[in-house]
Specification:
This protein is an alpha/beta fold and 397 residues long. The chain is built from eleven helices and 13 strands.
Length: 397
């Protein structure tokens, strides 16, 4: 046997150095298989295509940056480095980044469509309608053979056995799915088939959920007169119809719970409402009694007198003040009248004549105020207080 002899460890080490040195960074696309999260938090899986398979691992510190959950059957694009595990003599890809193959282009397309529809107001909160609390008929637009419909039926049967369910069958993926989903929504509205409508499906890849982001479906959901609950995929999944629906449920099962009320809880709810109502009524009646208690007949009389007495006192005081003021005013006026009378009487000619004065007039009847106005021998008339005297002027001084 010729050539250099190597141990298994030495050969494996040379292979490791060769592989890891030559393929320090690789980008690989393939279908996920044998996906198994470990208890340590790391994710182990394989990537395969029609001709080959390679093991892969993504450590938990890198998994936190993912916005989706890798599952078997997904087509992924990963970026990382090759690593050789010497104890088993195997190699694998240590993934640093991971995304759904073609997801970048799809997400960019969905974001552009989202902005367009949002600008038209299809996602406005003012358009949202309230869900009926106790619907009698629930419509479901989904695949009739899918797990989503089975989950919805099981939950509605358990929580609200009297509710009728109308299945509006439609494919939930594929080229024809979007137009049929929109047609079923319009049919439910045209025929008024239900009180609330669940539109959705179970989980899947981003491509599988695309029909629920189709513009026709989004518009049909927004235009629906029947309240619509969007239930597409799992909690981490989303579709544009989530934004135009009246309510978004994380899963179809959650949608069934949202549109139904547990009938078992209704008697308890009624009893609690009754107790609350009685408590409120009793509280208000007790308060009313407390407010009315001071207003019995005797207390009312006392309160009336308490209110009236000060006003009567004020009235009496006002009356006394008014009488006193009027008496004082009358006395003042009387004094003024007396003074005026005295002044008038003092200036009266009769008062002067009472003191012995007389009024002398000449023959022309004019009052004589000066001796110069009388001629000698002129006839004069003298009028004392009483009577009249006739005289002749003998001399004038």
């Amino acid at each position: 046997m010729n050539g250099q002899r190597l141990t298994v460890s030495e050969l494996t080490e040379q292979i490791r150095l060769s592989l890891e040195g030559s393929f320090s960074i690789v980008c690989v696309e393939g279908e996920v298989s044998n996906c198994r999260p470990a208890s340590s938090g790391h994710l182990y899986f394989s990537l395969k295509d029609s001709g080959a398979k390679i093991d892969a691992v993504m450590f938990k510190n890198r998994l936190r940056s993912l916005n989706f959950e890798p599952k078997d059957g997904m087509l992924l694009s990963v970026r990382g480095s090759l690593s050789v595990y010497a104890p088993r003599g195997t190699y694998s890809i240590v993934c640093e980044e991971m995304e759904i193959a073609g997801a970048g282009e799809i997400l960019a397309m969905l974001e552009k469509r989202k902005q367009k529809l949002a600008a038209e107001g299809l996602f406005d909160s003012e358009r949202k309608k309230e869900l009926p609390r106790y619907p009698s008929v629930v419509g479901v637009v989904s695949s009739p053979t899918g797990a989503a419909v089975r989950d919805i039926l099981n939950i509605l049967t358990r929580r609200s056995s009297g509710v009728k369910v109308v299945i509006l069958p439609s494919p939930v993926q594929g080229d024809d799915a979007a137009s049929l989903i929109a047609a079923r929504i319009r049919q439910a509205n045209f025929w008024q088939l239900c009180d609330v409508l669940i539109v959705g499906r179970g989980g899947g890849s981003l491509e599988d959920l695309l029909p629920f982001s189709d513009e026709e479906v989004v518009r049909a959901v927004a235009e629906s007169g029947i309240p619509v609950v969007s239930a597409v995929g799992h909690e981490i999944d989303w579709a544009l119809c989530d934004f135009s629906a009246d309510l978004r449920a994380p899963t179809p099962s959650a949608a069934a719970e949202l549109v139904s009320e547990n009938l078992v809880t209704i008697p308890d709810y009624i009893q609690k409402t009754k107790e609350d109502l009685l408590h409120v009524m009793k509280t208000r009646l007790d308060r009313a009694k407390l407010l009315l208690k001071p207003f019995d007949l005797q207390d009312m009389e006392y309160r009336f007198r308490t209110i009236l007495q000060p006003r009567l006192i004020r009235l009496d005081d006002a009356k006394d003040s008014l009488v006193k003021a009027m008496s004082q005013k009358c006395a003042d006026l009387k004094n003024r009248v007396e003074l005026t009378k005295a002044v008038m009487e003092a200036g009266s000619p009769l008062a002067v004549m009472e003191r012995g004065f007389s009024v002398v007039t000449n023959s022309a009847g004019k009052v004589v105020r000066s001796a110069a106005n009388v001629k000698q021998g002129e006839r004069l008339s003298i009028r004392p207080l009483k009577g009249e005297i006739t005289a002749i002027a003998e001399s004038i001084t």
